[in-house]
Amino acid sequence: MSAKVLVARLDSAGDVLLAGPAVRAVAAGRNGAPNDVVMVCGPQGAPAARLLPGVTDVLTWEAPWIVDPAPAVTPALTGTLMDAVVGAGIEEAVILTSFHQSPLPLALLLRLAGVDRITGASVDYAGSLLDVRLKPGEDFPEDQPEAERALGIAAAAGFPLPDDDDGRLRVTELPDVRHLVGEGPYIAVHPGAAVPSRAWPPLHHAAAVELLTAAGFRVVVTGGPRERELTATVAGPEGIDLGGRTDLPFLGAVLQGATVVITGNTGPAHLAAAVGTPVVCLFAPVVPAVRWAPYRIPVELLGDQHAACAGSRARICPVQGHPCLSGVSPEDVVEAVLRLSSGVPSLGSRRSIGRTDGRRQRRGTR
Fold this sequence. Notes:
By secondary structure, the chain is of the alpha/beta class. It has helices spanning 13-18, 20-28, 46-49, 75-88, 104-112, 146-156, 178-181, 202-214, 228-235, 248-257, 267-274, 289-292, 323-326, 330-342; strands spanning 3-8, 35-41, 55-60, 92-95, 117-121, 132-134, 187-190, 219-221, 240-241, 260-264, 279-282, 299-302.
């Protein structure tokens, strides 16, 4: 009988997609005995969890230390999670976090829900909250791709990536979108970003679409329901405007069919990586590219990675004029598209983020 293991990733869709290889490692189990993986995710990440191979069920819960704006901490809120964990019959948990997040609040709730074994990475003393604790910066380097960080936590729990798994991002089968994109090759442009500091200016996007269509490319522009005005501006008269017309599975299928995807440091960049499509990534350095750039696909990384905002985690650009991205011209983006579509890399761009063999560099754990 399969064990039920909870894998937690409580933030955005992109972060959940980056957890995919670790989820598959946990699902593979120990000594040939597979696990049933139940993911607990926030509202933004839950749709992505439903696309991950190896996930059998998804619990959606708003963590007060993750969600912004944060819900009030009440017995009802914490009780909802604990009741769901008890009801799912969870025996073990693997908590996946980024460098700025602590697994300990969730570990406490899981302990109270009766979870016997919990693994996580914590800079703080974990006491009895974690059975397996990795110390960031000691047991593993912080400057590594998020997918490999998650794989390291899973491996410390006793779930190494199987030898026949290449460690790339993956999603389950996606729907047919020919009725949306039409026939023939196309470039996909996703101009929106969850936070303003990561967005390339809309008129830069629009100019790039004009240049691409003038060069003979078909262009498809995607965005959420609240981004219809943005996608209409960017698509202009020549682009195909899909603003508000794609949920996450349909968006994944649109990106899968594209020759190249143009986007920022957003969930769709990681969704493109999960379907194997090259990305021109307009990457604001508010977070490090080595950790969050599209993983193990051909990438043209644009943007000043040494700008004053580097490492600030700012949601609103702290530098007047947003120079790290506004300095990237539409012509720069078109040239990057041409390089990726022809398979000729730029000497200054990162072609692939992450180890080529799918294995993280293992260090001692405790």
